[in-house]
Each structure stands twice: as C-alpha cells, then as structure tokens.
What does this fold into?
Amino acid sequence: MVIRRSIIAAAVVAAGLTAATGFVAITSTDADAASCRQRVSGSGMGQGILGKGTQRARAAATADWENKAKTNYGWKFRKLSKASDVNWDCKSLPLKATCIVTAKPCR
It folds into this structure.
C-alpha cells in the first residue's frame, strides 16, 4: 500500500512539473526511432522456377541492401524491416530473376 501511494505521488509530481514547465523529455529511444538516413539501393539475382528465382533474388537484394546500410550508417541501420519508403523492382525471365530494393535506413 505504501509503495503504491509513493508511485502515484511520483507520477503526480512528474505530471505537475511537466505541466508547469512545458518540458517533455525525449528519450534516446524516441530519437533513434525517428532517425532515418539517405536512400540506399541493393540488388540481387536468383535462379529457379515457379517463383523460386524471384524469392532468391529478393533475399540476395535484401542481404546486399543490409550490408550497404550497415557499411554506410552503422549496425543500428542495417535492418530492411526497420527501413522506410521501401521500393522493390523485380524482373523475371525463364530460370532467372533480378531484384533491386531501395529504402531509407532507419534505427
């Protein structure tokens, strides 16, 4: 009961200080989530039939993009799954596919 009251009291004090000063702290995690960098391009080729070539080309393009993003901006920017404005361009021929992915790396 005493712990719960002290937590509530701390929250009330923090809310009052925020309202009085208009200051809101932004944590480094919030700043990291909003930081994206210049567009990076990756490409890949794959062979196979029934969509396997395209699947392999996309995987190769993803690996190429992630390697370039890590090299240019550091390991925090290496994941395509966290990137913004992702665009894919894949072309398939019999037994061969090529893909190019472009995206802005984000933390």
Observations:
- DSSP finds three helices and three strands in the chain.
- Confidence is low (pLDDT under 50) at residues 1-29.
- The two ends are 40 Å apart (CA to CA).
- The first strand starts at residue 40 and ends at 47.
